[in-house]
Structures are given as structure tokens and as C-alpha cells.
Design brief:
Elements: H1 2-11, E1 15-26, E2 30-41, E3 44-55, E4 58-66, E5 68-76, E6 79-83, H2 101-111, H3 114-117, E7 122-130, E8 134-143, E9 156-167, E10 175-176, E11 182-191, H4 192-196, E12 199-203, E13 209-211, E14 217-225, E15 231-235, E16 245-248
Parallel strand pairs: 1-14, 6-12, 12-15
Antiparallel strand pairs: 1-4, 2-3, 2-5, 3-4, 5-6, 5-13, 7-8, 7-16, 8-9, 9-10, 9-11
């Protein structure tokens, strides 16, 4: 009830005049579509899925709260396509500098520490984007071991997909964002058969859509909707798969990386 009350209070001062449009290039017909409102409250992030419509390959999500940030979500026959917010603050450089391979390796190394992985049995980095001073990381985690409390049912697993933010403003050492290091895009408890049936593909070009009082409407132009792959993966804007980084366990069953 506290979270619901926080949403009502935060939305009481917004205008419901926002709109997102896009021309869809989809491998499969879109069955359903949503604009997912990511709302920060005193109790953390809250996600609200607002229905959108698809007419003649045109996505229209209207009557959206302004200001607000949104990720698009699509259901097709073979699974789900989900946006995630890869937007990070600009660096201090006049000409933006990309995230280096060395910085990427440092972030991956730090996210491999037991403080980030101990609770989980499987940890996969799906995507990393950013610049020389800021980075966003998309991580999927799974716990298959039994846990205590929360109405645990024997054989139940916990699956989460999280968005982490890292920063290195002095270009000396990467640390998690001080105010909001991460939030969960999705958190579910399920059984092994349900996890094996997952087909969810994350795409950064479908996320982080900001609507403001000065820009209440966003026309994204043509966007690519590839066919979802079995499991949980990330793709680039052109639909090509982002190579995942398996952190835990060190190898897949059978010795595959």
C-alpha cells in the first residue's frame, strides 16, 4: 500500500499527455505492446506497464505521464522483446570519449566479486554501454538453491534482470553509483520448467525514452524487432546478438564457456 500511495502522490502533479510512436520492422506480428514507466519512489523503482497499440506496423503509446522515462515491451509469438535504459550521464569531455576495453574489463572484474555474486548460482552480464566516466550494465541472475522465508516452495528458483550503474568521475577507479547503484527490471520466482521456457530478449534501443514538458512526444522512427531467442539475451539496435559474459559458474555444464 505504501508503494501504491507513493505512485499516486508522484503522479498527481504530472500531465497525461505524453506519446511515443515508432515504425516497427518485426520478424513476427506483434501480439501486444506496452510502454513500461520506470518510476523512482522513496521505496525504490516501480515499473508500471501501460498498454500501447500497433496499427499497420506503427506503434502508438499515448496518454503517458509527463515527465517520465519509459522502456518499450513487445509480445510476439516466440517470446518477449524488452527495452532497457542504457543512457548514462555525459562525461566532462567536450568531445565524448567511449568506454574503453580496459574500463569494461575492470567493471566485469568487480562484478565478479563474491559481494556481487554470492547469493546467486548463475550470473551473466548481458550488455555494457557507456563512456569514459559512466557505464550501464544489464545483468541476469538466477538462484537455484533453496532459500529461507518468503513462502518458499520446494524446487522454486529466483530469476532477476537488473540494471546497474557505474561511475569513474576522476578516471581513477570504477565504483557503483552512489545514490542508486541498481534496480530490477524484472524479478520472478519460478520452477525449472518455467525458466527453461523463458524467451526474453533485451534491446537498449527500446529503452530509456525520456518524455519531458518540453518534449512530451517522441517519434523513434523505424525500429528493429528481432525474433526473441530461447533464454535471456541482449541485442544491438540492428538485431544482432550481444555476446554475453558468463561470470558464474565459470563454465557451462560440459565445459562450454
Amino acid at each position: 500500500m505504501k508503494t501504491v500511495s507513493a505512485i499516486v502522490l508522484l503522479l498527481s502533479g504530472v500531465a497525461w499527455c505524453g506519446e511515443i510512436r515508432a515504425r516497427l520492422d518485426s520478424d513476427e506480428p506483434v501480439l501486444k505492446a506496452w510502454a513500461v514507466h520506470r518510476l523512482q519512489t522513496d521505496e525504490g523503482f516501480v515499473s508500471r506497464s501501460l498498454p500501447a497499440r500497433v496499427e499497420d506496423e506503427m506503434l502508438v503509446a499515448d496518454d503517458l505521464p509527463v515527465p517520465g522515462r519509459f522502456d518499450l515491451r513487445f509480445q510476439v509469438k516466440s517470446g518477449f522483446l524488452e527495452g532497457w535504459d542504457a543512457t548514462v550521464p555525459e562525461s566532462d569531455y567536450v568531445e565524448e570519449q567511449p568506454l574503453s576495453e580496459a574500463s569494461r574489463a575492470t567493471i566485469l572484474s568487480k562484478m565478479s566479486a563474491s559481494s556481487f555474486t554470492a547469493y546467486w548460482d548463475r550470473v551473466v552480464i548481458l550488455d555494457i554501454q557507456g563512456n569514459i566516466q559512466n557505464a550501464a550494465v544489464l545483468r541476469a541472475v538466477l538462484r537455484t538453491r533453496p532459500f529461507v522465508g518468503g513462502g518458499y516452495r520446494p524446487g522454486e528458483w529466483t530469476w532477476r534482470v537488473e540494471r546497474w550503474q557505474w561511475e569513474d568521475p576522476m578516471e581513477h577507479t570504477w565504483t557503483t553509483h552512489q545514490d542508486r547503484p541498481y534496480y530490477a527490471l524484472v524479478r520472478r520466482r519460478m520452477f525449472e520448467r518455467d525458466h527453461r521456457a523463458l524467451r526474453t530478449t533485451y534491446a537498449r534501443h527500446l529503452g530509456g525514452i525520456a518524455l519531458t514538458s518540453r518534449r512530451p512526444r517522441a517519434d523513434l522512427g523505424p525500429i528493429r524487432l528481432p525474433r526473441p531467442m530461447p533464454g535471456t539475451h541482449a541485442v544491438n539496435p540492428d538485431g544482432s546478438r550481444v555476446a554475453p559474459v558468463l561470470i558464474k559458474p565459470a563454465t557451462e555444464p560440459g565445459g562450454a564457456p
